[in-house]
Design a protein that fits this description.
The chain has about 270 residues and is an alpha/beta fold. The chain is built from 10 helices and 9 strands.
Length: about 270
């Protein structure tokens, strides 16, 4: 039986970016994003008072939760006996996930704290060979950015780096009034599923540098922002792709760009 939650039992802490979801319908919709991944372990990030946790347990997931807030940990211990031995009282960003899952695949879900949501997805990217699915709620603007297609202004570094390895879908928007305390912005729910790519076909380290350098000066054309990665007077700068801006490029075009730069560096 789904229990009612008194959102005042744990004090939301601004320093941790906590906004407790109070709409159980929204929590249930987020939980169903993992219905097709019941066969593998699931890690929930920042469960708070378990508004999402309850539905994940009810669905039968092999669930662990990681929570930094001591007050929330105590609440979970008292209200969720099914989580005994499965509550990790730690900072997700500092966790060595291989100590928990070894080399086995697993999925990640959460109502992610706004103040570290981008860092959370960079961490997921570090474990891309194991994280087969990642879903959850984050700030609307960030959620849109992760799913942004080429040619859109919201496209950024994480858009390209994540889309190289994941198929990303923006699912739905959540209003501010279903949180306590309400945030100043709307939220968005996304789902990422690992694609079939095992090798980008280019220098992966250089690929990351090219993407980050390009968006670091996103108002400039690639000819200007990437000039520092190339030998002086390099002829490849005359190619048409360097006349574009980073948000215009697809993942495949960034891979092509990386190959061009690598070739020029090797000459």
């Amino acid at each position: 039986m789904i229990q009612p939650f008194n959102v005042m039992q744990v004090r939301a802490k601004k320093s941790l970016g906590q906004h407790f979801l109070t709409d159980l319908t929204v929590a249930q919709r987020i939980a169903t994003t993992m219905d097709s991944h019941l066969h593998q372990p699931l890690l929930e990030v920042g469960p708070g008072m378990g508004v999402l946790t309850q539905y994940l347990l009810k669905a039968g997931h092999d669930l662990r939760v990681v929570e930094l807030d001591r007050e929330s940990v105590e609440y979970l211990q008292l209200n969720f006996p099914a989580l005994e031995g499965r509550i990790i009282a730690d900072d997700f960003l500092r966790l060595d996930l291989k100590r928990i899952y070894g080399d086995k695949p697993f999925s990640v879900i959460g109502n992610y704290p706004y103040n570290i949501s981008s860092q959370i997805f960079f961490k997921v990217l570090d474990y891309k060979d194991q994280v087969t699915c990642c879903s959850g709620m984050l700030q609307h603007e960030v959620a849109q950015r992760l799913a942004a297609a080429p040619g859109t202004k919201t496209r950024g570094i994480l858009s390209v780096l994540l889309q190289a390895w994941y198929d990303i879908e923006y699912l739905f928007t959540v209003d501010e009034n279903v949180f306590n305390p309400p945030p100043k912005v709307k939220s968005g729910v996304i789902k990422m599923v690992r694609n079939q790519v095992t090798d980008l076909g280019c220098d992966e380290r250089l690929f990351k540098i090219v993407v980050k350098t390009s968006f670091g000066q996103r108002r400039k054309t690639l000819r200007n922002s990437l000039r520092g990665l190339l030998p002086k007077q390099s002829s490849i700068l005359e190619q048409a792709i360097f006349g574009q801006r980073p948000e215009q490029l697809s993942v495949e075009e960034f891979i092509h760009l990386t190959r061009l730069i690598k070739s020029a560096q090797s000459e």
